[in-house]
Design brief:
The chain is α/β, with parallel strands linked by helices and 412 residues long. The chain has helices at 2-18, 24-37, 42-53, 60-71, 78-81, 103-106, 131-139, 141-146, 155-166, 191-197, 231-248, 263-266, 271-281, 291-307, 325-338, 359-364, 377-389, and strands at 174-175, 180-182, 188-189, 210-213, 216-217, 220-225, 251-255, 259-261, 312-316, 341-345, 370-372, 403-404.
């Protein structure tokens, strides 16, 4: 039963890394349940793990994905029942109920329940020794995806990236508060509140109330390009924008040929419903690109009203402009005066030979404070660090130039 204990412990560890608080005691309970119940198929194994490892309804979604990743095509229940190794296992799920073992969710066929997207068809006997390597590969998902370009990820990997992005520590930069508030470490005496409090002590100001300018978080504004060339990256940054909207009250906009505000749509607690509503609100998804026109629309409709004033702008675009780049230059010049810090994320920057020669990118770059690639999970960390580092006041520009952060794709 050493293999059983190792599988139970590894599965519990992977669940814990994905966000489900699995303890060693629960992993041991899972192994004991398998021994006592002797599951006949993956459906029974699924329910044994579900009743012993998870504690809340919101953990079911994560459990389903990790279960499909770990157990599908990796272990054979015949190994624990003593059956013949050549006997084909039964169907993974009963008709009418679709769980992680269902062929439609894993890309398998009914004729080969043990096949996967990576290894289609029935496995050869020589592949039996690859089970341990497959388990280790499943447990190192974070490392495998950290340097993979977002444009090359599969739909299953995109689900895992979504979970990893939700764990990124998105902390807004702080600014000095404009108004003084009561603060224990304040230096200025609040005479009015001090005298008001002295009424309780017979007119003696026993407690001195002091005031200070308390730091306040800066507003973060995400403006993502959802044109055809940016569609693979826009899906990922929509997750980051939703995390910012829910966690720190950020603003989220997308554009292709028109500007769409998605802050309200992404504020829905149900992520799937939020993304469906966001997709329905942006009819120009995967269309052309009018950067200058949409940025000017943002300035006129939202920027001057306070959304961009003193904020940190995170613009995600490859800089391809189908209109006159001069409008991009004018828009960026105005945004640089309104915003506290402008961060431009261009996935094309990851290429070693990249030069900002496209009309829109060349026009915008002089007014960008931080220029990053953000093409992978590791590069996405550069974006998060740039947001946190933007708390420092920028020096007045004599000759505008962007600060480059992050390594190139070849250096990673």
């Amino acid at each position: 039963m050493a293999e059983l204990a190792q599988i139970a412990a590894s599965f519990g560890h992977l669940l814990h890394a994905a966000g489900v608080p699995v303890t060693p005691e629960r992993s041991a309970r899972f192994a004991t349940a398998i021994t006592l119940a002797a599951p006949q198929d993956l459906t029974q194994l699924y329910w044994l793990g579900r009743v012993t490892l998870i504690t809340a309804h919101e953990q079911i979604d994560i459990y389903d994905r990790v279960f499909a990743q770990v157990f599908r095509g990796i272990i054979d229940m015949a190994d624990f029942r003593g059956d013949s190794a050549n006997q084909a296992p039964p169907a993974a799920a009963p008709t009418g109920e679709r769980r992680p073992g269902d062929p439609e969710r894993t890309g398998e066929s009914n004729n080969n329940p043990r096949g996967t997207n990576a290894t289609p068809g029935a496995r050869d006997d020589d592949e039996d020794g690859a089970d341990e390597a497959s388990m280790l590969a499943a447990m190192s998902t974070d490392e495998r995806l950290s340097n993979k370009d977002f444009a090359a990820v599969t739909e299953e990997e995109l689900l895992l990236i979504r979970q990893l992005i939700e764990r990124l520590p998105l902390v807004p930069p702080m600014r000095k508060g404009r108004r003084e508030r009561p603060h224990a470490a304040g230096r200025r005496l609040d005479i009015r509140k001090t005298l008001r409090g002295s009424h309780r002590t017979g007119g003696d100001p026993v407690k001195l109330v002091k005031r200070a300018r308390v730091p306040r978080p800066r507003r973060i504004v995400f403006i993502a390009d959802i044109s055809g060339s940016m569609e693979p990256y826009a899906r990922v940054y929509l997750h980051l924008a939703r995390g910012g909207v829910l966690a720190i009250g950020a603003e989220a906009f997308v554009f292709a040929t028109r500007l769409t505000r998605l802050t309200r749509a992404l504020s829905i607690n149900n992520p799937d419903a939020a993304y469906r509503k966001a997709a329905a609100a942006a009819p120009d998804w995967s269309g052309g690109t009018r950067i200058g026109e949409t940025l000017m629309r943002f300035i006129n409709d939202y920027g001057r009203r306070g959304v961009a004033r003193g904020a940190v702008l995170v613009i995600i675009s490859d800089g391809w402009e189908i209109e006159d780049p001069a409008l991009v230059r004018i828009s960026m010049e105005r945004l640089s005066r309104l915003a506290h810090h402008v961060i431009w994320v261009n996935p094309r920057k990851a290429v070693t030979s990249f030069e900002p020669l496209t009309g829109g990118m060349a026009a915008a770059l002089p007014y960008v404070d931080t220029f990053v690639s953000g093409h992978s999970l590791r590069a996405l960390e550069d974006v998060v660090r740039a947001i946190q580092a933007s708390a420092v006041d920028r020096a007045p520009r004599s000759q505008p130039a962007a600060k480059h952060i992050g390594l190139s794709h070849a250096q990673r």
